[in-house]
């Protein structure tokens, strides 16, 4: 069984990021702009629909269906960035157009995106069931701690659950790219096998790669909020500076995060016991 060498991976990431982080910034910015344009219109429509009283079951089903489609589209965008960063790590030629690679090769990558969306939907369904079964107890907690605290805790638990489930399948895109004839389920199985015994090492790799920038981003965000509470010109200038520093650090953390996936993947497949790249 292969084990990730966190120190060696971090050194490699620093080298790759030095040459390619600016390109990833631009790719992320393009992806976010396109996603915001598309998702903004749809989410606005969903909010308007949800504000209507006595929604019928059909409307609720339509809303859930649209949410599922948006999740799938989001995973297809992620496919583009993951392929782009994989090629950067391998020092292959890339263009900004790889952001849309998941859509260009939609027949190959759509099954992966659908399965990922189903996994997310399953987790949400589980917590919806739990909230229904524990409704009296949750009401008591809401009365004691407040709705905001309760919702924050629930959202945090859901996000952590999604993270711990999907982390086992983070290599499905890279596996499919390297093995285009492999079916989606085999890609998920191969990813699970690669991550076996490496989940906490991978989280350690992510923390070492992005932790400092995330801490700085949170610090600058907090400082910006504190400056906004003071109403004068000087605090407004400081707030703008802190917002800018927050933006730089959060994007740097996200860019470095995208490099952790292909670097960990290439390390595992290059050092597997058989010495072969995964095949169907």
Q: Mind explaining what this structure looks like?
A:
There is one protein chain. With 280 residues, the chain is mostly helical. 81% of the residues lie in helices and 0% in strands. The longest helix is centred in the first third of the chain and has 45 residues. It is globular and about 55 Å long.
Give a summary of the structure in a few sentences.
With 280 residues, this protein is an all-alpha fold.
Largest sheet: none
Count helical runs: 10
Strand content: under 5%
Radius of gyration: 21 Å
Instruction: Let me know the average pLDDT.
Output: 83
| Residues in helices, as a percent range | over 70%
Order of helices and strands: HHHHHHHHHH
Describe the secondary structure blueprint for this structure.
Layout: H1 6-50, H2 57-89, H3 101-104, H4 106-133, H5 135-145, H6 147-166, H7 172-178, H8 184-195, H9 199-228, H10 233-270
What attributes characterize this protein structure?
280 residues; mainly alpha
């Amino acid at each position: 069984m292969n084990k990730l060498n966190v120190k060696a991976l971090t050194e490699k990431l620093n080298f790759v990021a030095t040459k390619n982080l600016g390109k990833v910034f631009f790719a992320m910015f393009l992806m976010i702009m396109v996603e915001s344009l598309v998702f903004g219109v749809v989410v606005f429509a969903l909010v308007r629909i949800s504000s209507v009283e006595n929604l019928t079951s059909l409307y609720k089903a339509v809303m859930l269906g649209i949410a599922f489609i948006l999740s799938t589209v989001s995973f297809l965008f992620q496919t583009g960035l993951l392929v782009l960063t994989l090629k950067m790590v391998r020092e292959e030629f890339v263009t900004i157009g790889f952001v849309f690679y998941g859509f260009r090769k939609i027949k190959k990558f759509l099954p992966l995106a659908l399965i990922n969306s189903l996994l997310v939907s399953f987790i949400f369904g589980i917590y919806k069931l739990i909230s229904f079964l524990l409704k009296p107890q949750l009401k008591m907690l809401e009365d004691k701690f407040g709705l905001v605290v309760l919702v924050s805790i629930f959202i945090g638990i859901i996000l952590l659950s999604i993270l711990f489930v999907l982390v086992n399948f983070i290599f499905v895109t890279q596996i499919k790219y390297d093995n285009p004839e492999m079916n989606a389920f085999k890609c998920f199985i191969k990813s699970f096998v690669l991550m076996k015994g490496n989940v906490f090492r991978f989280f350690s790799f992510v923390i070492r790669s992005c932790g400092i920038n995330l801490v700085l981003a949170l610090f600058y965000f907090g400082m910006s909020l504190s400056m906004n509470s003071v109403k004068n010109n000087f605090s407004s200038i400081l707030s703008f500076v802190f917002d800018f520093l927050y933006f730089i650090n959060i994007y740097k953390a996200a860019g470095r995060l995208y490099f952790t996936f292909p670097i960990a993947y290439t390390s595992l497949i290059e050092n597997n016991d058989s010495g072969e790249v995964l095949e169907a």
